[in-house]
Every structure is written in C-alpha cells, then in structure tokens.
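Appendix B. Raw example, untouched.
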Amino acid sequence: MEDGKIAMDHMIAAEMTERRQREARHFEKSISRNVRLYRSVAIWRDDTLFVKNALKTGRVEAEIAEIAAAGDFSKVGHTGMSFGGSTAASLCYVDTDCAAAINLDGSNFDPQLFNRNVGKPFMMLMHDWPNLYKQLGADKNIDWSDISYTDFSYEEHARAGTSDKIYRLRVKNVAHQGVTDLIMAARGPVKSLLYGSVDAATMMAIVNDFVLGFMDKHLRGLDNNFPQAQFAEHSADVVPHKAVKVREWWKGLSASEQAELPEGPNRRQVSAGNQGAQAAW
C-alpha cells in the first residue's frame, strides 16, 4: 500500500543523507495529508498540559483535592508509551514545570523536535529495531544497530550523541508491543510473534528499573549511579545507544551540503496549538 510505504521507507535507507531527506519528506507529507497521528500531536500534548495545570492549581473534584495538593509540581516528569511516548517528549519541551521525560518506544511525531534539542533530561527506551527494519525490507547484510528510528530527533544533528542527559537504549529480542505489560499476557508462539522472544518478567524488570532509576536521578536528585547500575544489571538484554552516526555524518558534510538539505517540517503547525493552551491559563 502506498501510504504504508511512505510511512516506513525513511527507516530503511542505509545512506544517511537519503535517510534524513526521506524522514523530512515523511514529516511534510504526513502533515500535508492531515495524517491523524501528526494532527494529534498538539491535541494530546495540550490535553495533558491542561490536566497537569488543573492538578497544579487545585481545579479538581473535591474527592481528589487532597491528593493533588500533596504533589510537587515544580519538578514534573512526563512518561508515555508509543504515541504517548512521543507526546511525553513534546509536552516536556513546552512545559516549564517539566524536569524530565521518558519515551517508551515511540517514534517522534512532533516536527518541533526534529533536529532540535529537547532541552531536558530525556530517555528513549526502544524495542529491537534492527528486526523491524529487516521485516520492512531493509538490506539484511547491513548492521542496523547503530541508527535508530528517532536519531534525527531530540538532539541537534551537530551535537547528537554528546549530551550526558540524553539516554537511548535498545532492548534485544523485544517487539514494539512488548514494551508494555501486555507481554505478560501471552505465551508460546503468539507471545514471540507479537511481543518478542525476550522473557516477559525480564522485560518488565528492565522497564521498571530504567524508568525508576531515571526518575529517581532527575526528579528526586538521588545519587543512584544511573544508568550504569541498570546497564550492568541487564547487560545480557539491554544495549546503550547514542546517535553518534548522525553527528559524524553531519560533520562530514560541507556547509553548502548542509544548507542544501531541506530544513525539515514546519514546526509552527504544532507550536500554535500550545500557544492556545497556554493562553487559557
């Protein structure tokens, strides 16, 4: 199906310039065609921001007022899975109360964060993407482990892979849907097909340990040896990843070659939604 090909072909280009061009075109086409996922970015983000602001200001039902009042909204962490993970990153980018965010295996659907630093401590916990690339028809002779599906986002190309507050990791032998507790609900061939062959209890321990460790460090300020402790604990299943290939490719281009690349998607289409939400407060 043509739309499916357009939605995926940017992931399996081996040459970096072509890959980047495809991803920029993918953003532009998806936005121009009013694809629902890209149309929903501002809606999900602003809905979540509305809820956070309601909790922060006590504009809640009486039954939960005491709970809301007990919260510390000076340092908020946003977390989500899949499209919710993309939303968490987009929300943290604009929420002045956000101290950290986690994207659990979501692609980036926000044009604001293409070739741009998210600006807060941020973690990407990802499925075993080389397996997905090969299912999409990528060259099976290429080692795809060094370029993930979000490496052009969340960091400027020129600085990709250099921040000590951007964490990217890949869990081996898990599929996208396996980065949830759904992995505990299936066994045998069905489980491997839908969620991956990684042990379900191990996968849940990986998510729990990395999420808690990240939030303890960046929200609570604990000296907890994150992420070294977590990588050591799960070394058999988790591989650290940095977007260094993007930076190396970018620095290898001349100034004129960099200038010739498309700037990328129109960021204003998403940022306009946020201005409306902020004005309401």
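End of appendix B.
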